[in-house]
Design goal:
The protein contains eight helices and 16 strands. The chain is an alpha+beta fold and 290 residues long. The strands form two sheets. Strands 7, 8, 9, 10, 11, 12, 13, 14 and 15 form a nine-stranded mixed β-sheet that branches. β7, α5 and β8 form a beta-alpha-beta unit. The radius of gyration is 19 Å and the shape is globular.
């Protein structure tokens, strides 16, 4: 495997960052997870747009231009002969001192890894997954805005630990007001009375790229889409439920906190959106090999 580190391609065993990098010491940095399908990088521009928005939010000066980052992602896929895979793009504040002061980090680092990913067991995509609500709440906007894809993911990790301790792969996170925000790494959707509903960004949901694609696919199919505040009660009484994310893609949910959702099987709209999403990924994206 070839890994991009600050303009050079290194073997997996020789790819290194400094122990004084503030991305390691303090989680001071940002990242994107991106998918490649059929020799194309899916929604690359949108992911890089979001990366630059995260950089601006934390006052991190990107060492590469938007176009240069896109080219580096594509070349890393090419170096690793990726047809279908997952790209992890990381930008750290760079090497600094043992103090928090980011002004002592002069050279941000860019790291790109292109490999494979299987986020959840394959059978769960067919029969559906069970999830639980956890006590760990989503970060406050005034503390660490959930819109920033920062390297500080401890909030999500703690929620994931709670899910694993409950015997589940994923967990619902509420915000401080008790409304549904998102899951530890995915956005959440429900279907109720023929409409597709998902928490608003203001509730603590990430501006998910896959989330946006699914909303567009539903609207083009004539399905009403809305972003109301949702409670656990709304989830329990949904007709269907599914999660979306770059790594997860679309995965059905059939039980939440012991409550069976709908018929207890992946619903008709969920399956239809899965098919539409898979068809789109086969033909859309920035070509790796042109």
């Amino acid at each position: 495997m070839k890994i991009y580190v600050d303009g050079k391609y290194c073997d997996e065993k020789s790819a290194r960052i400094s122990v004084f990098d503030h991305g390691l010491l303090y989680g001071d940095g940002i990242f994107e997870g991106i998918r490649a399908y059929n020799g194309r990088v899916f929604k690359l521009k949108e992911h890089i747009d979001r990366l630059f928005c995260s950089a601006k939010a934390i006052l991190l000066n990107m060492p590469l231009s938007h176009v240069e980052v896109m080219k580096a992602v594509i070349e890393t896929c090419r170096q690793n002969k990726i047809q279908d895979g997952y790209i992890r793009l990381v930008v750290t504040r760079g090497v600094g001192t043992l103090g928090l002061n980011p002004n002592r980090c002069t050279d941000p680092s860019v790291i790109i890894i292109a490999d494979k990913i299987q986020l959840y067991p394959r059978e769960l995509y067919e029969k559906g997954m069970e999830i639980v609500t956890v006590a760990t709440t989503r970060n406050l906007h005034s503390a660490l805005n959930p819109a920033i894809k920062s390297l500080n993911y401890l909030n999500n990790v703690l929620a994931k630990i709670e899910a694993n301790n409950a015997g589940c792969e994923e967990a619902v996170m509420l915000n401080a007001e008790g409304f549904v925000a998102e899951c530890t790494g995915d956005n959440i959707f429900i279907v109720k009375a023929g409409a597709l509903l998902t928490p608003p960004l203001s509730a603590g949901a990430l501006y998910g790229i896959t989330r946006g694609v699914v909303m567009e696919l539903a609207q083009s199919d004539g399905v009403p889409v809305a972003e109301p505040n949702l409670t656990r009660y709304d989830l329990f009484n949904a007709d269907e439920c599914f999660l979306t994310g770059t790594g997860a893609e679309l995965i059905p949910i059939v039980k939440i906190d012991g409550r069976v959702i709908g018929t207890g099987k992946p619903g008709a709209l969920t399956r239809r959106l899965v098919d539409k999403y898979r068809a789109l990924t086969k033909v859309s994206g920035e070509s790796i090999y042109d």
